[in-house]
């Protein structure tokens, strides 16, 4: 062990052995822990359909060409000075235009407070802390199920959390009656977390009519809509279509907030690029709200990272790069849609008696397969297939090379 | 007019007021708004060249080029605690590669969002897992320290540090206050180049401080934002931290690469927790992840990749030490120039503290009214506590600053 010579005055005898003896090992993150386990597996047939990161048909991560070009443009030019606390202003402007529409009235009237954040997580956390600070007695309503980290975020912000029904296992679709019933019971002034598109983990989205009904309910009952939009463009391949829920609520005059992530739709995962926007009464209030959001960011990380925001700004402000981006996003979305069809048809070919149409009805990166925890564990142990134990399959991890193997394994554990 | 049938309800955030500008970052905002050509920004601590321009280090440029050219690199999520290679090298940089903590694996390092993020994650961890939820900050200290610890849920108190009369360290006061603090308190220490005063303990004083802290069973939390930038020597600037680690006790260390690698906006930093045993280290790391995941999930990749490259490549590392010394030397030379300029003007007062203080900042001793006068009449932008960023000075602007100080101190009218 240590052979260091005793220093002149070391920790006094009788001092406790250390501060951290009582620290318990924390549970592995249910999502990111899957990738850790996958990486540790040496079986050549292993398949990772755990974390929601896009893979091409070779199963490789992709850096978009428009991103590569943007990086070439940025290289060697910029300085690396601190961004303002609220991030790159041009980035924020372009982000909110993408979310709300280039000519949205709220933008022209400068009623939107927008700050650059650490991707979607950072946007949600900033909003949760803001909600706690200025509406300390309010609740957050979270759909069941949801991205696991949502609960962690609002819990760490110390906001009282409630849930509302969302997914209906028997139909593997939306439990719209349950959703409306539960939200009707939410007290006025409650905040409601909504997935703008490509609900994670289920892939089940409301229809336009259902969104409209929800919007009316929110109005009459004084509920605050908070949209988590992590898949704009990635769900249907069309950025306008994927933002329709937000546009519907905007038309009804809601003052909503939105967390945007560029992790998936621009493939900028590790760069941590996102935007939190809050629609306000007027431009002065937007200034106030932005300043208060900055007050929360300053003691958390001071100001957000530069590189990713520069990439997004370069892509969105250059018409050619933007066009290229639209195309590349559509390619990703289309590949996933193709894999959904392939997985479903493979299962049907194998003669599975279970219903699998939800695979193609669900949208976005994930398929909520309906597999039980035991079945998932068997998939991992017997077939080296890695997914989260809620049965969520990241379709982005499915390829023409592994879809048959995957279908076969699923059939084996479900027949 | 109302767009829809039902009246647009007032925003739920209607009661908000506009928050005040950040006292430090707000200076740059005000500076940028000023149209006057002769304005000087001595506010935020960001290095400037003699031409008054921000500097991107050569090694950083070269590292970036290499990263850009490597098409095999992707942009996948980093692990929650960041880039492992970066973590390892960052820890060795501050602790020394032969540090007992490194050798015995009693160390957990997590990549965080620069110094601020490292402090905040450490503070959140302490608020959850440490028995004494009280941290002592030096008086004065970087303004943001207070909110970082408070927002994490810790109570904040202060210990005496800066002596107004001597413009040096109030060593006795500091030891007294450390001795009086409840046993087990967290003591925040600036590893070197104290911000805002530039006043650092001598090696002998550090030894006295170390003993006082260990005797009370306190937990030292180092904020290391200027390693290499203060004296020009990476090892010399790490002395205080290494002395503490050498005694076998535990500590927290927040590292920033904002200044010493000029990576300000890329938010590169690391939190290291030195514990008594390696078993503890694994559990601590798992709990750190629970703090980080609901805050931002995982840290940004770009800046950390650059640092890992530079620290891991012998040539780049050597070159970096030379560039670092270049920045430190330029700042030291500005101190001398300013001192000489004030002496030449016969400005009343003892200005030797400008020479004795170390690092990016000088605590001039000017008061709020004098600072406001200098901003109004001479377009000198600096924080109201009298702190100037020496890094913002150049041969050209030293005379202007000296004139402004002279006028403020002698009460001369514009």
TrEMBL record, chain A:
Enzyme Commission number: 2.6.1.1
Catalytic activity, reaction form: L-aspartate + 2-oxoglutarate = oxaloacetate + L-glutamate
Keyword field contains Transferase: yes
A Gene Ontology cellular-component term: mitochondrion
Domain Aminotransferase class I/classII large per the UniProt entry, residue ranges: 45-410
Gene Ontology biological process terms in this record: amino acid metabolic process
Xref: Pfam families: Aminotran_1_2
Superkingdom, natural source: Eukaryota
Cofactor(s) needed for function: pyridoxal 5'-phosphate
Keywords: Aminotransferase, Pyridoxal phosphate, Transferase
SUPFAM superfamilies on file: PLP-dependent transferases
GO molecular function, one term: pyridoxal phosphate binding
Family: Belongs to the class-I pyridoxal-phosphate-dependent aminotransferase family.
Assembly with partners or alone: Homodimer.
Miscellaneous information on this protein: In eukaryotes there are cytoplasmic, mitochondrial and chloroplastic isozymes.
Record's protein name: Aspartate aminotransferase
From TrEMBL, chain B:
Highest rank taxon of the organism: Eukaryota
Pfam family membership, one: Aminotran_1_2
Keywords assigned: Aminotransferase, Pyridoxal phosphate, Transferase
Gene3D superfamilies in the cross-refs: Aspartate Aminotransferase, domain 1, Type I PLP-dependent aspartate aminotransferase-like (Major domain)
Assigned EC number: 2.6.1.1
GO cellular component terms given for this protein: mitochondrion
Transferase in keyword set: yes
First-tier enzyme category under EC: transferase
Reaction it catalyzes: L-aspartate + 2-oxoglutarate = oxaloacetate + L-glutamate
Domain Aminotransferase class I/classII large, chain residue ranges per copy: 38-405
SUPFAM superfamilies in the cross-refs: PLP-dependent transferases
A Gene Ontology biological process term: amino acid metabolic process
GO MF annotation: an example: L-aspartate:2-oxoglutarate aminotransferase activity
Entry cofactors: pyridoxal 5'-phosphate
Similarity remark: Belongs to the class-I pyridoxal-phosphate-dependent aminotransferase family.
Description of how the protein assembles with itself and partners: Homodimer.
Name of this protein: Aspartate aminotransferase
